[in-house]
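Lab meeting, item 3. Inverse folding demo.
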């Protein structure tokens, strides 16, 4: 599975029955709830990273990526736009980018 596959699945669930789809249930609650859920999962991933539990971190990272995609869908931000932004940044060091910012 690719992130594009998962994003397509999430998009396909937008109009699904919330009683049969977690994605539809979350999207029906709106962007703020989707953002809250993403934040919860990100914190859980942070905790497992600090604990050094690689298996638990793998699971929480999957939750976090999935809920990031749900939040993007809730906010009508296509994954392709995010990937285009990452492509725009490719080849420029993060140190160089940071140093180039106007004060
Ligand atoms: N990748 C996921 C995915 N990751 C996590 N989740 C659900 O997100 C929910 C997270 O809620 P909770 O935080 O309460 O559950 P939890 O994280 O296990 O519990 P805590 O540790 O947070 O307390 C759980 O119901 C998980 O099953 C996901 N639900 C769906 N997907 C994908 O989306 C597809 C469509 O799913 P539906 O929309 O449900 O049809 C699925 O086939 C999967 O490919």
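The presenter then showed the designed sequence:
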């Amino acid at each position: 599975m690719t992130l594009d596959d998962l994003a397509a699945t999430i998009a396909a669930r937008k109009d699904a029955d919330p009683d049969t789809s977690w994605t539809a249930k979350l999207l029906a609650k709106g962007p703020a709830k989707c953002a809250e859920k993403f934040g919860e999962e990100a914190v859980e991933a942070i905790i497992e990273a600090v604990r050094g539990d690689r298996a638990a971190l793998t699971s929480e990272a999957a939750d976090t990526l999935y809920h990031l995609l749900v939040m993007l869908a809730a906010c009508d931000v296509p994954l392709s736009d995010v990937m285009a932004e990452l492509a725009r940044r490719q080849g420029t060091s993060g140190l160089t980018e940071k140093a180039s910012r106007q004060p």
